Amino acid sequence: METNEIKNVAYLRDLTARYFNTQKPSADTTGKCTTQISLQNYYELGSTITNMLKMCILALEQQEHKISETDQHSAINVMLILEMVLEMFPLDEFEVFDEINKMCFADS
């Protein structure tokens, strides 16, 4: 390889080492990757998930107004299902997880 190509390859390796760190290879041999999301606590995780569900409900609600009457009777009501999932989501329990987590690791 030419000197320029060697420098370019070294530069690309440096860039990938610095910036390509979002996905990590999975511990198993499936070839899948994992991605970590930094959150303060379980409650923030629960709030993030519920806000995503709310966003889906609002998007579906807006889309529903564009569907004709005949299509509404034969289609699956995804908005209703998401609303039920949102009601079933144990956000209070996530808050309890935070308290337990704080108690268990307070000495650490």
Overall pLDDT confidence: 79
Strand content: 5-15%
Strand order of the largest sheet: 1-2
| Subunit arrangement of the protein | single chain
- Structural class category: mainly alpha
* Cα distance spanning the termini: 52 Å
Task: Assign a percent range to the helix content.
Answer: 55-70%
- Shape assignment: flat
How many alpha or pi helices? 5
Order of helices and strands: HEEHHHH
Counting DSSP E segments of at least 2 residues, the number of strands comes to 2
Biggest sheet features: 2 strands, antiparallel
Polypeptide structure, described:
This protein is mainly alpha-helical and 108 residues long. The protein is built from five helices and two strands, in the order αββαααα. Strands 1-2 form a two-stranded antiparallel ribbon. The model has no long low-confidence stretch (mean pLDDT 79).
Descriptive keywords:
108 residues, mainly alpha, two-stranded antiparallel sheet, flat
SSE layout:
Layout: H1 3-19, E1 23-25, E2 33-35, H2 42-64, H3 69-74, H4 78-88, H5 91-104
Antiparallel strand pairs: 1-2
Quick recap of the structure?
This protein is mainly alpha-helical. It has helices spanning 3-19, 42-64, 69-74, 78-88, 91-104, and strands spanning 23-25, 33-35. A two-stranded antiparallel sheet has the order 1-2.
